[in-house]
Amino acid sequence: MSFASMGMLMFISLAAAAAGVVTVVLMLDNPPLSPSGLCAVLVLVFGSSAAAVYCYGWFSVTMGGPFPELCEDRNASGAELAGIEQENWPLRSACVYSDGAAVEHVSMSVNVLVCVLAGLAVALVCVGAALHRRARPTRIAASEGLTEKQAEQSEGQG
Q1: How far apart are CA 111 and CA 89, in angstroms?
Q2: Going residue by residue through the chain (158 aa), what tens digit of pLDDT does each one get?
Q3: How many angstroms separate the CA atoms of 132 and 124, rounded?
């Protein structure tokens, strides 16, 4: 990816996360709260936060990362530093020496934070879907003038 597209993704992710936080606050202030709707907004917050953190790590690695200062000019066997190889996922850099040895440095804080935020987003998608499905018979009953039990029976038959 280019700097421009990754920068735009980071900007959009930060804006979406901020908008999601504002929406959650507004949803909590105005009581008729749909639990599945709240889960959907939290998915937006956690997912866009994960994208923003990943973009930060990508810029860090691409622009030289926090790792080059960890590379020594010579390794223990006396071989000179030949170069630094960088990978974008997982965000890591490797010090490559002239004798073929490599020492990897992985940005665990960024990788763990991205994985935790993305995992929370996925878990909330599942919870929101379950809550949405569970609330469905009640909405059907209200729209048809049935009791909740009658709606569940009619859904089980169809």
Answers
A1: 9
A2: 688 999 999 999 999 999 999 998 988 888 767 888 888 999 999 999 999 998 888 887 777 665 556 778 888 888 898 888 877 777 777 888 999 888 877 777 888 899 999 999 999 999 988 888 887 665 555 566 656 566 556 655 65
A3: 12
Q: Using CA atoms in the order 72, 76, 80, 83, what is the torsion angle rounded to 10 degrees?
A: -50
| CA 12/CA 5 separation, integer angstroms | 10
Tokens at residue 6, please? 């990754």
Distance CA 106, CA 88 (A): 11
At what angle are helices 108-144 and 35-62 packed, to 10 degrees?
160
The pTM score is: 0.70
